[in-house]
Write a structure and sequence with these properties.
This protein is an alpha+beta fold. The chain is about 50% helix and about 15% strand.
């Protein structure tokens, strides 16, 4: 059985550096037009190489090119037959998920769980003007998380809002039915470290009696007919 492939190595094998950067940027906000200068600035590529990639991607129908006043803007072509597949692939290899996973990797021994929630977790894309909501559980400080995600925040051009809990604090809030924690747990999440299994085990380990009932579980119990 082969070794598990690393997302950054997969991306490097599939796309050249400039193409990977251009696609990763534009697919973060596929409905938004990007101007050449912004693409060059945020990808860190040379203007000539970025222009060549934009031309190739436009010719292939992956991007749309449109005149906006005296300038040219580019955006993802949602009508492309490979749009959904490519968006999923980029999200796993060069998108915000992989960027944040790499940014937090120096702290991995102190992090039990890290996941995105909110609009990105629901849509797999950033909405115009939206922030990135990140939750981290472990023996790591808020300052450490902010420091290690600062470069990603700058490259995205929008705020990353981390919520950081220790293991015991997270379990306590879950057990006590904290509204914010349960709202997050009952909605889509995109895991950067750990998964749903680790989430349940972490709460059980530190809460003693396991995670408190979720909203959906309580609702099912309320709907049960009383015994006669």
């Amino acid at each position: 059985m082969g070794a598990k492939a690393k997302p950054d190595l997969l991306a490097a094998a599939l796309f050249g550096k400039t193409r990977r950067s251009v696609l990763g940027l534009l697919f973060l906000e596929p409905r938004r037009p990007f101007y050449l200068r912004e693409i060059v600035r945020r990808t860190g590529g040379g203007q000539g190489s970025v222009q060549r990639e934009l031309r190739r991607l436009t010719t292939a129908g992956i991007l749309d090119r449109q005149a906006m006043g005296r300038t040219i803007a580019y955006r993802v072509n949602a009508a492309s037959p490979i749009f959904k597949e490519l968006r999923g692939l980029l999200a796993k290899t060069t998108g915000i998920v992989e960027r944040l996973r790499q940014a937090l990797s120096p702290l991995r021994d102190r992090i039990d769980l890290a996941f995105l929630y909110g609009s990105y977790a629901r849509d797999a894309q950033l909405r115009p003007g939206s922030d990135v909501d990140l939750m981290v559980v472990g023996e790591v400080s808020f300052g450490d998380v902010v420091e290690h995600t600062a470069a990603v925040q700058e490259s995205l051009g929008r705020d990353i809002n981390p919520t950081v809990y220790s293991r015991a604090e997270f379990a306590k809030r879950s057990r006590e039915g904290n509204h914010f924690v349960h709202d997050v747990l009952n909605h889509p999440k995109v895991f950067l470290r750990g998964g749903s299994g680790e989430l349940e085990r972490l709460a059980e380990r530190f809460a003693g009696s396991g995670m408190s009932q979720t909203t959906s579980e309580r609702e099912r119990r309320r709907r049960r007919k009383p015994r006669k």
